[in-house]
Specification:
By secondary structure, the chain is an alpha/beta fold. The protein has 2 domains: 215 residues, Rossmann fold, CATH 3.40.50.150; 83 residues, no CATH class. Helices cover 36% and strands 21% of the residues. Helix 1 packs parallel to helix 4 and helix 8 packs across helix 10. The radius of gyration is 20 Å and the shape is globular.
């Protein structure tokens, strides 16, 4: 059964008339490049729209050459069974260019409803609209104003997103509200380990760099990534890798897939370094605090901790919505 679409501001049903979705009061939301646009065109996620349309295929799995880190991450974190998802309505919040959308569509027979607040949805539609006709339902919408009634979804996941929203707990509450009673919600997020997490070039320089014009910041990253990668590699070779945290570059040695070619490694490094400095919000959390947010907002926690895949780890909380 498909999910009814609503205007999130007044909860009136939406129906497609021409190139617009229209509610009973005459409010219109356009269908642009295959995507229903609920959110304002410009918002705090503009940097993500820019980066995912520029790097639209960088993080997509390529199974033909064994590069399936997104698939490994998705199933390591959710623990979902592919057969159990058959015919289920699954909500993805914060799709970016669609790396996990692709996993769900190719690995399961679920009906995927996916939102992103930025124009990254354009990249997602380009990447995934032809994979499973009728099973990808894509929307540009805020986590706080999703075009679905409460208690609608069999599964809800949100990976790599919550730390970039203006209010972490309100975002958790919004995810839980869209799940059916008894449905599972899975999130991951940047973990914090006290003052040591914040003692990092990322958090020391973000107050300055996040105010840069995004195109200017991208050019700065692209112009400097080569020598920064060489310095980081040298520090690790000299067993001084701990000092790399003070370089204004993503942790290449610790966070990028080992199978990448040199050209691919450079591309990922540019993407992830831009992603370090450009978002308006970046709020890492303690795992037990996120678990408490689940409990306060109507979900019983079934797991809170780190999940591991292909030499990487992610802070994850899973929960079941209470009846």
């Amino acid at each position: 059964m498909s999910i009814e679409l609503i205007n999130p501001k007044n909860e009136q049903p939406l129906q497609l008339i021409g190139d617009n979705f229209v509610d009973m009061s005459g409010n219109k939301f356009p269908l642009v490049r295959g995507v229903l646009r609920i959110s304002d065109k410009n918002n705090y996620t503009d940097s993500f729209g820019m980066q995912w349309n520029k790097f639209d295929k960088t993080q997509l799995d390529r199974e033909e050459v064994g590069k399936i880190i997104s698939r490994q991450r998705f199933f390591a974190e959710t623990k979902w069974d592919t057969q159990d998802l058959t015919g289920k309505n699954v909500l993805e919040v914060g799709s970016g260019a669609g790396r996990f959308s692709k996993v769900v569509l190719e690995s399961t027979s679920a009906n995927l409803y996916s939102i992103d607040y930025s124009d990254a949805v354009t990249a997602n539609f380009k990447n995934n609209s032809s994979i499973a006709e009728g099973r990808l339902n894509l929307f540009q919408a805020s986590i706080f104003e999703m075009p679905f009634p409460d208690n609608s979804f069999d599964k809800v996941f949100c990976l790599g997103v919550l730390q970039h929203t203006p209010n972490f707990e309100d975002s958790v509450s919004a995810l839980i509200s869209k799940a059916k009673p008894g449905a599972e919600i899975v999130v991951d997020f940047y973990p914090i380990n006290g003052w040591w997490t914040m003692l990092n070039a990322k958090y020391m320089l973000r107050p300055v760099f996040k105010r840069f014009d995004h195109n200017r910041l991208m050019k700065i990253v692209e112009a400097n990534i080569g020598w920064l990668m060489k310095v980081e590699a040298l520090l690790h070779k000299l067993r001084l890798g701990v000092l790399a945290r003070f370089l204004p570059i993503v942790d290449v040695q610790g966070t990028l897939p080992k199978y990448l070619s040199k050209a691919e490694q450079r591309e990922w490094a540019i993407l992830d370094t831009f992603d370090m400095f450009s978002p308006e919000y970046d709020n890492p959390q303690k795992i037990n605090n996120v678990a408490s947010m689940f409990e306060r907002n109507g979900a019983d926690v079934t797991f809170s901790g780190f999940e591991y895949f292909e030499g990487f780890s992610a802070a994850v909380v899973r929960g079941i919505k209470r009846a």
